[in-house]
Amino acid sequence: FAFLLSLVVAFMVARRVASPLRSVTEELGRIGRFELDRVQLPKSSIREVHILSEAVARMRDSLKSFSRYVPVDIVRDLLQSGSVATPGGFRREVTVMFCDVEGFSTYAEKVSPELAVKTLTEYFEIFGAAVHKHGGVIDKFLGDGMMILFNAPTNLELHPGEACRTALDAISGLKEILPAEGGFVPRVRVGLHTCEALVGNVGTADRFSYTAIGDGVNLCSRLEGLNKIYGTWIIASSATAKAAQSGGFLWRILDRVAVVGRDEPLEIYELMARVNKATDEQRRIAETYAKALGLYFQREFDKAAELFGGLQDIDKPSRVMLQRIRALQVVPPDAGWDGVFKPRVK
Fold first, then answer.
1. How many alpha carbons lie under 13 Å from residue 213 in its C-beta half-sphere?
2. CA 19, CA 42: separation in Å to the nearest integer?
3. Parallel, antiparallel, or unpaired: how do β-strands 249-257 and 266-274 relate?
4. CA distance 292 to 149
5. Cis preceding-peptide flag for 153 (omega within 30 of 0)
6. Farthest-apart Cα atoms in the chain, separation
7. How far, in Å, CA of 264 to CA of 219, rounded?
8. What burial class does residue 217 get, using C-beta atoms within 10 Å of its C-beta: 0-12 exposed, 13-18 middle, 19+ buried?
9. Are the beta carbons of 192 and 146 closer than 8 angstroms?
10. Tens of pLDDT along 10-43?
11. Tens digit of pLDDT for each residue in 245-284?
């Protein structure tokens, strides 16, 4: 009887130990996959098991806090590979996005730091949600701007199109934000470029960050800045526009430019809307502008001016091109003129 009783007691004790340990083991497996959603671990009257459960819960919560500072996909891939992060990288085609808030610096000078941060957080939340929805990764925050990668660190099919959808969705979402103090509403300029870049860990042996480096990344930053000149919100390179041409977007070619730091001319495009959501006015602008720009490059300045003039009341880029044509009509270009615009600022 004593022997049987001891077996029953041993079984009950083992069960009281094994059940919570099994839950702790499963939670450690989820943590190892960087799945950090809170799971309530069972309580145990056994002191050692209780201490272990609390330690695992604290580790999960600490990692969840840590994940706010780094792209989760990067850490998850590192954990799954079982390797230690080292400096270095590899070449990969990516679509890069740079974005920046128009007039935020001036706004921040007029309001309290707390209100400026609140406004900035609302903008980041909307853009971050769109980035996450379409498979992108926020590489870094740049003051009131962001650098975003598509197709790194994980593979993303048709990443140029996903980047375009991100930009359109995010800018549309910003329109729902109520004006902050002083009537300020974040209006964001976006640059898009698809290129091959060196993607990986950059920094010192003790501390580094995951990012993309290359001439194409710098070019994307310049594209974002060109929005200031043309009065647009989303400018993409021809590489991105052509790669996403089957994605159902309404594009228009804006100009040929040689951005600061580059001699090679580049065709730039404005992403206007999704085709199924484009208005008749947007379609007319895109069609007429393309015809006018073609005449401009052929030196048919009078005909180009007539078409651009018909759009100037409703289209800022048309007004920009019309002013440029009027200057050329006063001082005609020389024989070597190729129509490439060279901005003086970044």
1. 10
2. 8
3. antiparallel
4. 34
5. yes
6. 114
7. 11
8. buried
9. no
10. 666 666 666 677 777 777 677 666 666 766 666 6
11. 999 999 999 999 998 878 789 999 999 999 999 999 999 9
